[in-house]
Structures are given as structure tokens and as C-alpha cells.
């Protein structure tokens, strides 16, 4: 009799445990965030990414290398371009889905003319205390301040480029204008650097990776960091019309990208007592960027651009840029910034991520 009672008790305990376990599993599944779904539960999609081979693509390289896109069941295939305008043309025609690119007059003119594309997230901005771009002069130059550029030759890659925008705004801050200098369109960064090296121009506008090269080779000197002169949302993540319409895939892409920017920021943009310090994954990020850009690691270490940790766009600055380009007659038609800025999918993706 005693054995039967013990057996019956054991059966009851087993059934109770099983029922509790099932109930807990169902409750846990009910509380799960949509972002926690396994890749197999998400629609597989291929995303075509267009960009220039620059350090600023670091969060994207990280997201590819660390599997952040794979976690979203996305096969991201990247394609290199030689110019920002070529990237914009490919994006507007849906030849690529996503672009990592600079914000230029060419882009705004395309949208003003009816081409559809969206600026959705940060990929690089001028932030005081960090170097992204600078006015660079020859190390032997007698120029010591912005005002000394009056009557001098300043090289930019092209008319309507980011460099054009930056030098124009910097001159205005110092009570001057583009009429006070000889602005020279040089068609390429390489031509800018060679002209500076040969003292054929007095100053050039360069990104941090190229600034590092001029310093390493011993002919460049920074006259002014752009971030100390102005705020500027210089580069961004943009999406094509077709990709923007696929909200599920676009949101998943943005979620993986934000993970990449956080990983990047924590590794290379961490500050302690006002000074940059190496984050936990600093050396790993250097190697990842070197792999994709094919640049020497010592150059990369000196050229990490600032990005918001959550990839948040400084949306108000887009209107500021458009207004300036209109004033300078570099945009042919008025353009409402709301026609090109769309952060809806970015905001939706951010809400699914923990801080």
C-alpha cells in the first residue's frame, strides 16, 4: 500500500512539473520581442549596398563581419563605386538598395528634379573634439589662419561637393566668401593631394584618412578642423524607392546597421577625461576596416570619423545644406528637406533594440 502511494505521488509531481514547464514556455514566447526571432523565422532577402572604399563605411563592414546582417537573415552584397554621384544614380534607379554616401548638391538636384531616394541615418558628421575633415595646407606654407586664404587657390574635388560646402561656410564664419578665394575643381582626391604636395594650390579640403597620409608623407599641415568651425551632417545612409517600400527588410537592415554603429562607436570613439581611448574591440575594428578599404592599419588608426552611437541623423542640418546650395545657385530648384529625409524605418528599428 505504501509503495502504491509513493508511486501515485511521483506521478502527480511529474504531471505538475510538466504542466508548469509548458505554461512557462508559452508565457516566455508571448513576451518575446519581435527582434529576438531567429534568422530562419525571418524572410530571407538580398540587399545590394553601394559605397566608396572609405573608413567611414566601418559600421557596415562590422555588421557584415560580425554577422549582424545574418542575424536578420539578410544577404548583404556590397559594390564599390568611384564617385558619390555614381552611387546616387545607381540608388535612384534601384540598381542598388542602400547607399553609404556623402550629401552633395548633385544629390539634392536629383531629388529636386523628381528622382526618389531617402536619407535615413547617420554615417558621419562633424563633431567638435573629433576629426573628420580639415582645411589642409603645405607644411612650408606661411598661412596661419583662415583669413590668410584671401586670394589663394583652394582645391576641392568638384563644384557642389562636400568640400565646396565646407570651405564656403568656413569662409563665411570668418567674414569672407567664396569670392575671396580661387576655388579649383580638381576631379579627384588624388589630384588634390598631388597639387598640394607640388605647391600648385595653397589649401585643399580632405577627409581624415587622406589627412593622415599627407602628415605621414611629411608635406601636409592642418590649418583648421572643420568640426571646430561648423556642425555638418556630411554623410549618411540612403535607401532606394523600392527598398524603402519593403518596410520589413528595410527595418531589419537598419537594426543590424545600428548594431554596427554601436560596436564601432564603443571601440574607437570612446572618451575618458576628454581624451579618446581605445575601446574593448579597437584592434579588431582596425583590422576589419583594413580588410575592406585595403588601407594600412596605421592610416586607419588616425582616420576614424565621428558617428552617432545610434546612427541618429542630424535631420535639421539637411535643410541648412539645401538653403546654402540654393543661395549659391548650386541647386537649380527649391527643395523641401521633408522630400528626402525619412527616418520612419530607422525609428522603428531603434525601438526594437536595447540601449
Description:
One of its GO terms (cellular component) is periplasmic space. Keywords: Signal. It is found in: Periplasm. Belongs to the bacterial solute-binding protein SsuA/TauA family. This protein is an alpha/beta fold. It has 2 domains: 186 residues, D-Maltodextrin-Binding Protein, domain 2; 97 residues, Periplasmic binding protein-like II (D-Maltodextrin-Binding Protein, domain 2). The chain has 15 helices and 12 strands. The chain has a 5-stranded mixed beta sheet with strand order 2-1-3-10-4, with helices on both faces. It is globular and about 65 Å long. The N terminus is likely disordered.
What is the rounded distance between the termini? 60 Å
Give the beta-strand count: 12
Total number of helices = 15
DSSP strand (E) fraction?
15-25%
- Globally, the shape reads globular
Structural class: alpha/beta
Largest sheet, in brief, is:
5 strands, mixed
- What is the rounded Rg? 25 Å
Q: What is the helix fraction of residues, given as a range?
A: 40-55%
Instruction: Give the CATH topology of the largest domain.
Output: D-Maltodextrin-Binding Protein, domain 2
CATH homologous superfamily annotation of the largest domain: Periplasmic binding protein-like II
- Going by CATH, the architecture of the largest domain would be 3-Layer(aba) Sandwich
Number of domains: 2
Question: What are the secondary-structure elements, in order, as H or E?
Answer: HEHHEHEHEEEHEHEHEHEHHEEHHHH
Widest β-sheet, arrangement of strands: 2-1-3-10-4
The CATH class label of the largest domain is: Alpha Beta
Mean pLDDT over all positions: 90
- Low-confidence residue ranges: 1-34
Domain Solute-binding protein family 3/N-terminal: 53-272
Keywords: Signal
Subcellular location: Periplasm
Family: Belongs to the bacterial solute-binding protein SsuA/TauA family.
Amino acid at each position: 500500500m505504501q509503495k502504491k502511494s509513493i508511486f501515485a505521488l511521483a506521478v502527480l509531481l511529474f504531471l505538475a512539473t510538466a504542466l508548469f514547464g509548458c505554461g512557462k514556455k508559452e508565457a516566455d514566447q508571448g513576451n518575446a520581442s519581435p527582434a529576438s526571432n531567429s534568422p530562419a523565422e525571418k524572410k530571407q532577402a538580398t540587399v545590394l549596398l553601394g559605397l566608396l572604399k572609405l573608413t567611414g563605411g566601418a559600421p557596415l563592414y562590422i555588421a557584415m563581419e560580425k554577422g549582424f546582417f545574418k542575424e536578420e537573415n539578410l544577404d548583404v552584397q556590397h559594390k564599390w563605386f568611384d564617385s558619390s554621384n555614381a552611387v546616387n544614380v545607381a540608388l535612384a534607379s534601384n540598381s542598388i538598395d542602400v547607399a553609404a554616401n556623402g550629401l552633395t548638391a548633385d544629390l539634392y538636384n536629383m531629388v529636386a528634379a523628381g528622382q526618389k531616394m531617402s536619407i535615413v541615418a547617420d554615417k558621419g558628421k562633424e563633431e567638435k573634439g573629433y576629426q573628420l575633415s580639415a582645411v589642409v595646407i603645405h607644411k612650408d606654407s606661411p598661412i596661419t589662419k583662415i583669413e590668410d586664404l584671401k586670394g589663394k587657390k583652394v582645391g576641392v574635388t568638384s563644384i557642389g561637393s562636400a568640400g565646396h560646402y565646407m570651405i564656403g561656410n568656413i569662409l563665411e564664419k570668418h567674414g569672407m566668401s567664396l569670392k575671396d578665394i580661387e576655388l579649383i575643381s580638381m576631379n579627384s582626391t588624388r589630384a588634390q593631394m598631388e597639387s598640394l604636395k607640388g605647391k600648385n594650390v595653397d589649401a585643399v579640403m580632405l577627409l581624415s584618412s587622406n589627412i593622415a597620409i599627407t602628415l605621414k608623407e611629411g608635406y601636409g599641415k592642418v590649418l583648421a578642423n572643420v568640426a571646430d568651425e561648423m556642425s555638418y551632417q556630411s554623410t549618411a545612409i540612403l535607401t532606394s524607392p523600392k527598398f524603402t517600400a519593403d518596410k520589413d527588410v528595410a527595418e531589419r537592415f537598419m537594426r543590424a546597421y545600428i548594431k554596427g554603429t554601436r560596436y564601432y562607436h564603443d571601440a574607437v570613439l570612446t572618451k575618458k577625461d576628454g581624451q579618446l581611448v581605445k575601446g574593448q574591440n579597437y584592434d579588431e575594428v582596425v583590422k576589419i576596416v583594413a580588410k575592406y578599404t585595403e588601407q594600412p592599419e596605421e592610416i586607419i588608426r588616425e582616420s576614424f570619423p565621428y558617428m552617432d552611437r545610434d546612427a541618429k541623423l542630424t535631420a535639421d542640418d539637411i535643410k541648412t545644406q539645401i538653403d546654402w546650395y540654393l543661395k549659391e545657385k548650386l541647386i537649380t530648384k527649391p527643395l523641401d528637406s521633408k522630400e528626402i529625409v525619412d527616418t520612419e524605418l530607422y525609428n522603428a528599428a531603434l525601438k526594437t533594440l536595447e540601449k
